[in-house]
Design a protein that fits this description.
By secondary structure, the chain is mainly alpha-helical. The protein has five helices and three strands; from the N terminus they run ααβαββαα. It has a single domain, classed as Uracil-DNA glycosylase-like domain (Uracil-DNA Glycosylase, subunit E), CATH 3.40.470.10.
């Protein structure tokens, strides 16, 4: 993470591809991390780092109040589910949308982190990921206020 901006490297490319597929631009969405100070050497975040930063994430979610929170990876899934125990969670499969969601309720969708997808070196898996991510983004923006 040379830029110190979340999701701008290889993982960012997959997110950018999903945004393009959904007809959106990065300024249309809010991107953040559980750990706001990225660990050196791109290592996995340590539990104390997550504990130190998760309050910022919770504050951001209260301020932004998104309809859909897409959590990428196990750290954010564990952190959000511990805080929002009663949350409506979605288990997204590529090409499938949830059935008749309430337009005013907040949903949490958990997907694999893009870096996991990239480590598989499988173009078809990457494409499937982008298409599924784009479908989730389109769904999230379907009810936005004009």
């Amino acid at each position: 993470m040379d830029t110190k901006v979340p999701f701008t490297g290889g993982s960012g490319r997959l997110i950018d591809d999903a945004l393009a597929e959904a007809g959106l631009d990065k300024p249309d969405i809010f991107i953040t991390n559980v750990v706001h100070c990225h660990p050196r050497g791109d290592r996995k975040s340590l539990p104390h780092e997550i504990d130190n930063c998760k309050g910022y994430l919770f504050d951001e979610l209260e301020i932004i109040s998104p309809r859909l929170v897409i959590g990428l990876g196990k750290d954010v899934e564990k952190t959000l589910l511990a805080r929002y125990r009663e949350a409506s969670t979605l288990h997204w499969q590529p090409f499938l949308a949830p059935m008749n969601p309430a337009p005013t309720e907040r949903y949490f969708l958990f997907m694999r982190h893009p870096s996991w997808i990239l480590r598989k070196h499988d173009d078809s898996l990457e494409r499937q990921y982008v298409i599924g991510f784009a479908a989730a983004l389109r769904w999230a923006f379907a009810y936005r206020q004009s």
